C-alpha cells in the first residue's frame, strides 16, 4: 500500500456503517483519520479513537455542529455558515481516511453535498453498503450518481449479515470491486476491529 492515498468513506444511508469501516481501514492501513463535518455527539472521531491503536492520528474535525441532523439543517439552527472552500486537508504524509457525514448526498449548505468534498480532496470513494430490504436500490442509485459525476470509486464494502444474492447482483451490475465484508458483531471493540481485514485495496 503506497503512502499519500486519500479515501473518502461514504454510505448508501446514514446507518450503513461508515465509522466502523473507517476504523477498520484506519487500523489496517495504519492511516490517519479525519471527519470534515461532525453533527452531534458522541463524535465519530471519539469512537474511532476507542477502536484503533493510540499511536494512530485522528485529526480535529473540520466543522463541529451540535445538532445530530443533516449538516445543512444543523448549521442553520446554529447560525453557522459552511462553505466548501473553508475545508483544508490535514497535513500528513500518511494515507488519509476521510469519513463523510450521513448518506452519500447529504447537504452541508443550500448548494453543496458532502460527497462533493471527495472530489475537492481528490480522494477515491469507498462506498459502504449495508444489506437490508431496499439496499440494492440504494446502492445502485449511489453508484449511478458517483459514476455519472465522474467520481473515482475504489470499491464497495458490505456491512452486516451477508446476502449473496444481493451482493453478487450489485457487483455484477456495477462492475465494482468488493473490497471486503464486515460481519455483524455483537460488540465492537478495538480487538474486533483489529481482526477485520479489507483485503482488496
From TrEMBL:
Residues involved in ATP binding: 15-20, 46, 99-102
EC number, as in UniProt: 6.3.3.3
Named cofactor requirement(s): Mg(2+)
Catalytic residue positions: 35
MF GO annotations: ATP binding; dethiobiotin synthase activity; magnesium ion binding
Assigned keywords, A-Z: ATP-binding, Biotin biosynthesis, Cytoplasm, Ligase, Magnesium, Metal-binding, Nucleotide-binding
Annotated localization: Cytoplasm
UniProt keyword annotation of Ligase present: yes
Annotated Gene Ontology cellular component terms: cytosol
Reaction catalysis annotation: (7R,8S)-7,8-diammoniononanoate + CO2 + ATP = (4R,5S)-dethiobiotin + ADP + phosphate + 3 H(+); (7R,8S)-8-amino-7-(carboxyamino)nonanoate + ATP = (4R,5S)-dethiobiotin + ADP + phosphate + H(+)
Pathway(s) the chain acts in: Cofactor biosynthesis; biotin biosynthesis; biotin from 7,8-diaminononanoate: step 1/2
Pfam families xrefs: AAA_26
Binding residues for Mg(2+): 19, 46, 99
One of the GO BP terms on file: biotin biosynthetic process
Family listed: Belongs to the dethiobiotin synthetase family.
Subunit and interaction comment: Homodimer.
Function: Catalyzes a mechanistically unusual reaction, the ATP-dependent insertion of CO2 between the N7 and N8 nitrogen atoms of 7,8-diaminopelargonic acid (DAPA, also called 7,8-diammoniononanoate) to form a ureido ring.
This protein's name: ATP-dependent dethiobiotin synthetase BioD
Species whose genome carries this gene: Reichenbachiella agariperforans
Amino acid at each position: 500500500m503506497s503512502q499519500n492515498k486519500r479515501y473518502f468513506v461514504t454510505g448508501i444511508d446514514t446507518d450503513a456503517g461508515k465509522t466502523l469501516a473507517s476504523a477498520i481501514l484506519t487500523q489496517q492501513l495504519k492511516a490517519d483519520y479525519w471527519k470534515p463535518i461532525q453533527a452531534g455527539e458522541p463524535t465519530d472521531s471519539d469512537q474511532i479513537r476507542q477502536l484503533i491503536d493510540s499511536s494512530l492520528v485522528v485529526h480535529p474535525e473540520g466543522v463541529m455542529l451540535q445538532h445530530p441532523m443533516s449538516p445543512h439543517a444543523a448549521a442553520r439552527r446554529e447560525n453557522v455558515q459552511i462553505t466548501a472552500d473553508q475545508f483544508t486537508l490535514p497535513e500528513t504524509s500518511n494515507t488519509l481516511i476521510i469519513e463523510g457525514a450521513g448518506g452519500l448526498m447529504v447537504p452541508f449548505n443550500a448548494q453543496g453535498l458532502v460527497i462533493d468534498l471527495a472530489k475537492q480532496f481528490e480522494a477515491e470513494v469507498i462506498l459502504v453498503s449495508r444489506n437490508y430490504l431496499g439496499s440494492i436500490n440504494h446502492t445502485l442509485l449511489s453508484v449511478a450518481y458517483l459514476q455519472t459525476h465522474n467520481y473515482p470509486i475504489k470499491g464497495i464494502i458490505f456491512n452486516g449479515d451477508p446476502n449473496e444474492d444481493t451482493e453478487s447482483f450489485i457487483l455484477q451490475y456495477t462492475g465494482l470491486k468488493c473490497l471486503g465484508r464486515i460481519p455483524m458483531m455483537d460488540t465492537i471493540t478495538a480487538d474486533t476491529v483489529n481482526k477485520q481485514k479489507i483485503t482488496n485495496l
